What we know:
Blueprint: E1 4-6, H1 8-20, H2 23-32, H3 35-42, E2 49-51, H4 52-66, H5 71-85, H6 88-94, H7 99-113, E3 114-115, E4 119-125, E5 128-134, H8 142-160, E6 165-171, E7 175-181
Antiparallel strand pairs: 1-2, 1-3, 4-5, 5-7, 6-7
Helix pairs in contact: 1-2, 1-5, 2-3, 2-4, 5-8
Amino acid sequence: MRSEVKGVWFLTAKRYLLEDYGPEQFDRFVAAVPEAHREWVREPLASRWYPEDMMRDALASFYAEVAQGSNAVFTAAMERCALLGIHWFLQLLLSVTTPRYLLRLVPTALSQIRRGPVKVHIEAREGGATLRFTGQPYATDLRYRLATPAIVRSLMSVCVGQSARATLTHFDESTHVCDVSW
Length: 182
């Protein structure tokens, strides 16, 4: 089954770049994306499904053009994009819930933004959890390995604040295992 991602990520990345860096940086980012995906990245639709290879190409361009090859800058940008993508009302609701309840929402949320083979299995424990993402396209790609824990950490921070920690503890050709603590 082909993997696809919802356009909301591309809209969020566009908003982040325009707000934090300005239109010139956004234009440089778009220019760095392969030509086949440039127009989609320039004017994405939140409700549209896009091919996973477009996400891979966008992350690679973002890493090279915006983060200038810095893992720390890229990770911080992915965290900020994830927060921007969570609607303020949902952020308010999540801020008064428990981490365990939030974790129960992750599989449903994942199905709203990804379509295809990616699944998540969650093993919660006191003060933490292990999230196993399987069917993950490009699981060995550095940008995906950086983005997965950054997005999970950002999501959990809405609920528990700055104490949220997420670390990628294992990856292979199709799996990311992320340990989360708070």
